[in-house]
Design a protein that fits this description.
- With 85 residues, this protein is mostly loops.
- It is extended.
- The model has no long low-confidence stretch (mean pLDDT 72).
Length: 85
């Protein structure tokens, strides 16, 4: 098999010896006894100007400091206003 000699065919080492990586820590959600309350989750909402957008994503202007709870790899929802960006 020619591919088994490729440099990236198998990792060399264990997870402890490979390059360090940044781990995203998610807080544990509290369970509610009330089903109605547990179905409603409240997340912070921010109004940000769109600098540009493409099929690859959005470029947003974030004035001031970025919230501490926002981490790389987060899933966000964006509602684009017509004519913006």
């Amino acid at each position: 098999d020619q591919w088994k000699q490729a440099f990236d065919a198998a990792p060399h080492g264990t997870a402890d010896t490979l390059l360090p990586y940044e781990e995203i820590e998610y807080p544990h959600l509290q369970k509610h006894d009330n089903h109605e309350a547990s179905g409603q989750q409240h997340f912070p909402t921010y109004a940000l100007p769109v600098i540009n957008h493409s099929p690859g994503g959005y470029c947003l202007a974030w004035p001031g400091a970025v919230p501490a709870e926002l981490q790389a790899g987060e899933m966000v929802g964006i509602e684009d206003t017509a004519g913006q960006g």
